[in-house]
Amino acid sequence: MIAMKDVHKTYDNGTRALKSVSLTIQDGEFAFMVGPSGSGKSTIIKLLTAEVTPNEGTVLVNGFMVNKIRSRKKSMMRRTLGIIFQDFRLIEKKSVYENVAFAMRVTGAREKDIKKRVPYVLDLVGLNVDTDRRPEELSGGEQQRVAIARALVNNPSTIIADEPTGNLDPVRSLEIMMLLEKINELGTTVLVVTHERHLVNRFSKRVIALDNGRVISDGMKGYVIHEQETAAPTE
Q: Which residue, among 139, 104, 136, 138, has the nearest Cα to 120 in the 3D structure?
């Protein structure tokens, strides 16, 4: 579960990124987080991954209190999360198989478990390519599927996808979003941070809308344009 209560975040340069943000995402839920550039989306991701801490309020991520988390426990908390980025962040010199296996090796997984788990996850994400190929030999959609497999391979309870379709065409974007929906149906909590209004509105999911560091709407009404979206950026 993710829970934020009365969270304020001001950076050292004086930027007020979040102002009294409260929200809860239950285990097994699928939610979109939307808003214009500078609305606070990136800061929330940094809080959920313990890259930064709030100035005020509390942030709870899968049983870990980010406000008080010690360095040695950050890695434990992060293992409960699978992060998917817009730019894929694959290791160019490693094959498809090795990119996914690497995520298990850094956690100390046994080789026999890696050999069993990696093919299963690659099949789960529907990647039908030679796993000896390198990222540069794949399409953008295929690279994103590898990135999703890597995020899933350690069986996290929560997936956070940060603009996962930002570098993809509309057809591939829809495929990736449907894959994330499938992963959610298998029991994984999914939070998708995006600005793609038309894609969000194709799915009947919870939509958390931010602007100017505040939650301005939260519900099942889709990505609605609000007057606040024209406000000046906060980050």
A: 104
What does pLDDT average to over the chain? 92
Distance CA 192, CA 49 (A): 14
In this prediction, residue 225 carries a pLDDT of: 59
The per-residue pLDDT for 59 is 97
Give the per-residue pLDDT at 20. Answer: 96
* CA dist list (Å): 191 to 48, 81, 157, 208, 213: 11, 11, 11, 10, 18
185-201: per-residue pLDDT in tens?
999 999 999 988 889 99
**Which residues, 6+ apart, have CB-to-CB distance to 168 below 8 Å?**
140, 141, 144, 176
pLDDT band at 70 (very low <50, low <70, confident <90, very high): confident
Alpha carbon separation from 131 to 90, 96, 143, 167, 191 (Å, rounded): 14, 5, 12, 22, 28
Q: What is the mean pLDDT of residues 154-172?
A: 94
Neighbours of 120 (CB within 10 A): 11
d(CA 85, CA 218): 24
